[in-house]
Amino acid sequence: MRFPIWPLLLGAVLLSGCVDYEKEREAYLTSMVGLSEAELIQRMGVPQRTYEANGHKFLAYEHQSESYMSEDDFGGGFGMMGGPFGFGEPDFGGGEVDVSTCQTVFDVVKGYVQSFSRHGDGC
What we know:
Blueprint: H1 6-30, H2 37-44, E1 49-53, E2 56-70, E3 95-109, E4 112-119
Antiparallel strand pairs: 1-2, 2-3, 3-4
């Protein structure tokens, strides 16, 4: 029995794309450390939330992504439509939308970005 290798290769390529994106995103966010608060806002836009405590100002940016998870239930039966050898109606099952959220919080002290953290299932 011969097993096709192309599904494994395709999976490896797709996974490497995710890894590269995450590395690029992390590098981009790291480049924000040391910027002034104004420069951060110029690059990232106005934050969704801010919070101040003990000389720290926290600027929170939220990103949501949606992906459709299909249930590929292609079913059918013989003999329903078209006589004894006809193919029945296909049943394309439903699916669901998966929403992932990632919140990036920048810590600003004395007007400059000191660090950032990321939270959520979409990070």
